[in-house]
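Model: Ready when you are.
Researcher: Fold this.
Model:
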Amino acid sequence: MLRNVLKHETCANCRICCSFVKNDVWEAPVFSEQEIEEIEKKGIGRDRFLQQKDGNYIARYDFQTDTEILLCPCLDEERGCLLGEHKPFECSIWPLRIFENEKTAYLGLAEICPAFQGEGEKLLIHELEENGLRGRIMALKEKQNRMKPEKGYHRV
């Protein structure tokens, strides 16, 4: 959904959104049963994921240290994300995330994404406001599998 403001090469060279240390594993994507079935079709075993009480799944990360960096099981270091168009909604809009409170729903931007700092953030806000990206994302908010804390995000 961010193709107009984010080049594939930029993500391919960074991959910060697909790598986790123990303290930020809360940021890892949540997968639905349907997404897990698509993942299995790509040859990634269901055993790489843990089913949660709500029926959704998260990747299994077995950290040996607090600073060890582990990759999403759907990321191939040579080819990138193996899920393509079948990736979870939250992955397709990252570094944006939808947050809700008792009054409204709004978008937050991950402060850690290097592509949207400075001029990149201005370009993103223009796309959100002037080209209707905010509306397109918000229209799909029910696809987000789980609300997460706002830690590390700022409202855009």
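Researcher: Now this one.
Model:
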Amino acid sequence: MLAKDYKGYKGLPVLAGLETMEDAIAKGLTVAESVDRLKRYHWTCRRLSLLLTSRITAMPIYELKMAFGLHAHYLAEHTESFFNRVREMREPPYGMDVAPHAALDLLLDEIGSAPEMEPFLYGVYGVVIPALTEAIEAQMGVDNKLFDHPTYRVLRWALPEIRDIDEYGEKALAIFLTDEVRSRYAKWMGLLRECLGVMGGLDGVAEKKETDLGRIFSGRSFSYGIVPARDERFKDVFNMGVNAEAFLLDAGYAALPKTIMLYFKRMREIDVPEMMASIIWETKDKPWAYYKDMIRQLWDESRHAMMGEVGFTSIDIDWKRIPFNLTWSYLLNTRMGPKDRHAILFFIEQGLMPARTGKQYEWEVAVATANKLTSLIQDYDWADEVLHARIGRDWLVPELGGQTSAMEYGNKAWTEALKDAYDKFEEEGLTRHANWWAGIYSDACKYWGVAPDPKVLEYDLSYRDSRPDRKQLATE
């Protein structure tokens, strides 16, 4: 019987529906060919996830901060799946901590050293991600889905998310990659394309071109942007004039106005990715699982910020009127080392676990507002924090000598980071710590169709003398 006429029992699909018999006979890469491609995908995803993370702090545009967090998370997850598949294919993982081709490293070095946002976007979304998408699609088209089925599954999981990144990148480039940018960086863009040519395409399948490659931007060391930046929509970013936690925890205030503080706290979490990105960038030589976990948490915190954005939009509040302060990320990044920053983050996360004052309490407040969106936001915010506390226990607690030591270390570091900051920002003319609460609360009441509570309108407690966990700061 010819392969084209081959049929399963009573017409059932043959070969579990993975391939026709004709294709199963004709198609397939060798193990070595499949592994060679996977190693390139692995290295690309590994390095690109860290490069995207490295730009979050100093990237002023809010939407791009959020997108970089998502895309770094996708790539970090697939880094692990590509690595694990290679290990299954008679290939020990030795050598997977170096680039499979020098031109691939040069390509990624140049993108990581891009001096401005626009060339960085072009390198990531105009060169690497399209090449990675094309390479995965090509392998799925020629590999044998039966013989190399585990690889097929890994690729089939990765491809939709890589395509999502590609689609987002096309939209970003349509906005930022102007003719002037193309002209200014034409030589450098040509170098990136030459890197792909020298390595035979990202998958190494095309004919390799003989070209001398020189460095342009990566010839000088990359300077990480440690100071968080925000775009022009964010006003008065050093304002610490409204203490959200004290209001939320005060039983004398009703649940409904606390909605605003819940949304404020969520969107203010922009500062967590801005801070966590610095930990990830400055912490070297950890197992990949560490970076994957930390990037996952960074993405979760980005999601929380966008949840707050959704919340404010749902009650017709223009969030641009609210001063979302970046003081936490600014102080931790500029005053503390990466271990101190992580310890502070861990201490805060552990402080969110108690039911009476932590995430469960915030969820209960949200439920009491009788607003489904608010309770849904807090439901997932609470769930995420449980994971984040585990990440800290896995990676930080052993380094600091146990849970108690880690908590003591984080508590002390947090107080040190905040020391004299409130007055210092005011003395330097960065802010007057204006109380923005009454106007936003009044507008929310109009949306809710209720009269503002005079007592709530008068709320005027700042962060001058206490931390968000209500611990008093020492005054000199």
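Researcher: Key takeaway?
Model: The chain has a mean pLDDT of 95.
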